[in-house]
Specification:
Radius of gyration: 18 Å
Structural class: mainly beta
Strand content: 25-35%
Number of helices: 5
Order of helices and strands: EHEHEHEEHEEHEEEEEEEE
Helix content: 10-25%
CATH class: Mainly Beta
Bound molecules: FE2/S2 (inorganic) cluster
Length: 281
């Protein structure tokens, strides 16, 4: 008989109905967890610095770990703002504080969740969304998505318009991206290398202009973490997904979003769309 397991308790808000909604069926989580042998991701092609040693997070004894943890690539300990936090659970406040010293008010980090590489990116959307789009005033942009063949797939607005994607509705100025490049499955990084695509700048439009792109070091694909679109993935079994836009390089499309909740100050991911993350398995 399956049993539910409880996410880490909320920080004393005493709202029992809220806690109840956070129960996840353990059988499902085990099925979905990429730590299981059936679903294990094989990291054959590792792009970002130091990910060659990536063993990823381990499921806890209860069958799953919803925490998103910092992953500090080997050699980047002294260069990234989260360099001393390797494998610590990510707190929301850490991103807010890191964003303060940024030109754009953005902050991103490499992470790992349930055995999968992710990028977590903070964008000052709420602060900027009502002002005119201007250089270094980033906000999330909902864009139309087209397949690599030019066929219209759908709109990023579907996160608010379609119930099936409601878990991906943008909230708390944050997104989590499943970080496997749809080209050949390397792991795009956030500001791990220095070039025009990764510098701390932002331009509107979801184009190649501006920096703060997620950059895949293998063959230089770039992804705009503020450009939310619906697209289709042709790798493996074809499927549609909501994700961030590929703005340059050989990747045929962008990378899918991972839904999350804030559990107090801690960032925890949800397994609603795990089928989307199997394209490099
Ligand atoms: S694997 Fe990312 S660009 Fe080739």
């Amino acid at each position: 008989m399956s049993r539910n397991f409880r996410l880490r308790p909320l920080s004393g808000d005493g709202d029992s109905s809220r806690e109840e909604s956070r129960l996840i069926d353990r059988r499902d989580f085990l099925r979905y967890s990429f730590n299981t042998s059936a679903g294990g991701i094989t990291l054959l092609s590792l792009g970002s610095i130091g990910f060659a040693s990536l063993l990823m997070g381990q499921a806890d004894s209860a069958g799953g770990d919803t925490a998103v943890r910092f992953w500090v690539p080997t050699g980047a300990e002294d260069t990234v703002w989260y360099g001393e936090r390797h494998l610590e659970p990510m707190s929301y406040d850490a991103f807010v504080q890191a964003a303060i010293s940024s030109n754009t008010g953005m902050a991103g980090a490499q992470g790992v969740w349930s055995g999968m590489p992710v990028n977590v990116v903070y964008v000052p959307h709420e602060e900027n969304k009502n002002s005119a789009a201007a250089t270094n005033k980033p906000r999330f942009q909902y864009l139309d998505g087209y397949s690599s063949g030019g066929k219209y797939v759908g709109s990023g607005f579907e996160v608010d318009e379609k119930a099936e994607y409601s878990a991906l509705s943008i909230h708390d100025n944050l997104i989590i991206v499943f970080s496997r490049c749809p080209h050949l499955c390397c792991i795009p990084g956030w500001q791990l290398v220095a070039n025009d695509y990764t510098n701390d700048s932002w331009e509107a439009g979801g184009t190649e202009s501006g920096g703060n792109k997620l950059f895949c070091i293998c063959h230089s694909s770039r992804f705009d973490p503020t450009a939310i679109e619906k697209n289709s993935m042709g790798r493996g079994t074809p499927f549609n997904y909501i994700g961030i836009r590929k703005v340059g390089g050989p990747s045929p499309n962008g990378m899918p979003l991972v839904p999350f909740v804030l559990n107090g100050d801690m960032i925890e991911a949800l397994p609603d769309f795990v089928d989307w993350y199997a394209y490099c398995a």
